[in-house]
Amino acid sequence: MDTHFENRYERTKEFHKEIITYSIVKNPATLIAYIPLIIIFAMSIISLLSPGVLPFSLSRNSAIRNCTFLAVLAAVIIYRYIKTLKNDYKRDIETNNGEPMKVEMVLTDDGIGMYSIDQDAKAHIPYKSVTKIINTKNYYGLLTEAKQLMFFKKDGFIKGSPDEFLPFIRSKITERSNKRKIIISAACLACVIIALTYWYYGRTIIEDRSTPTEAQWDTIIMILEHERTKLIEFKELLKPYADMLNELDIQINPVVQQRRAINHRGRSELHDWENNMWLPRYYRSLVACFIYKDGKILENPTPGSSPGYFVEYYWIVHAIKDEPVIFYEDPFKNFDENFNKLLNEISTHPALTSHNRL
Fold first, then answer.
1. What angle do CA 226, 255, 62 make, to 5 degrees?
2. Are 151 and 56 found together in one domain?
3. DSSP for residue 101
4. Threshold 0.85, pTM exceeds
5. How far apart are CA 331 and CA 144, in angstroms?
6. What does the pLDDT look like over 211-238, one tens digit per residue?
7. What is the rounded CA–CA span in Å between residue 108 and residue 127?
8. Nearest Cα to 340, choosing from 244, 210, 229, 236?
9. Which ranges of the chain have pLDDT less than 50?
10. Cα 171 from Cα 110, distance rounded (Å)
11. Within-domain flag for 191
């Protein structure tokens, strides 16, 4: 039987390193799986170093959790890489009396012969079993249906040449292209990313931001008028407390916060009517009563990594697109009780001098 190619090489530590690097790092399917992880890591780092730069910045805690998880995952992958390299090379050495295994590959008319020179072991693989050709820096690899890999060193041909090898092997096998699998995998991965992004960041990504209809314009005008009226009403409620605020040397800056829902988890973001003149699918607004000391917002020393503030919230509007708007007609019903409680808490704050306390 005619022999078309003969290839010999030693399965040295460099051989195992190149093959394992391809499997764990450079394999196209593996690279596709790494893409979303890299994106999440980049978003987390940017959110930590430059909050607010991204349109969908992560919270500090979420970014830290993501970075911690990905660091652990990277450590596991590196550990697996080192462990696999060590075990595979050690297995060859143990099997071959302390020496790197010597392999001879022979291509004949009816298949591929694989021989272990020192052990006089051999195997024969028909061409029809080969499903894929792999090309690394120094080796050609053939993957079989049983997921067995056979390698040919590019400078190890003692009969035939690397330039002749690929055309020959392609003429003998029907390489089952993985392009379709890769495309399907990429499409599925994209769907998962989109679904997770929608679930986390939510409706505003695909929300209808077209020019409001006439009915929606009427709704927007009603909402803005109601918010303006309630803010004026709130400022009137603050007037009896002017002397007390002066005594404490603090200032009140009531504002209307307008928010739109982002996802099903209760996450929301600010809705600026000046730059976003469209009616969100889910909209809520409130009067926020922040306390300031010397022009700076007064922080409330609370446990945890996120700073707290001395603030009271009073919800005033709840709207769902194309449905009747709910106006909270009496949102300040318990204003005096809540506000006095807030002032009592503030009076013990270290930033206030002792003579300003209640």
1. 115
2. yes
3. P
4. no
5. 71
6. 889 999 999 999 999 999 999 999 999 9
7. 10
8. 244
9. 175, 177, 305, 354-358
10. 12
11. no
DSSP string, 164-204: HHHHHHHHHS----SHHHHHHHHHHHHHHHHHHHHHHT-GG
CA 334, 222, 205: angle at the middle one, nearest 5? 95
Query: What's the pLDDT score for residue 219?
Result: 94
Domain assignment present for residue 314? The answer is yes
First to last CA, the chain: 104
Q: Residues 261, 282: contact at Cβ < 8 Å?
A: yes
The one-letter amino acid code at 233 reads E
Task: Let me know whether 227 and 139 are in one domain.
Answer: no
Q: What is the pLDDT of residue 267?
A: 74
Here the tokens at position 42 are 């980049």
Q: Do the beta carbons of residue 161 and residue 147 sit within 8 Å?
A: no
pLDDT tens profile 83-95:
988 888 888 888 8
For residue 87, being part of any structural domain is answered with yes
Tokens linked to 108: 């004949």
pLDDT at 345: 83
Contacts of 217 (CB under 8 A, 6+ apart): none
Confirm whether 26 is domain-assigned: yes
Q: Report the distance separating Cα 264 and Cα 201, nearest Å.
A: 9
Residue for token pair 């409680």:
341
Instruction: Check whether residue 40 and residue 160 sit in a common domain.
Output: yes
Which amino acid would we find at residue 325?
Answer: V
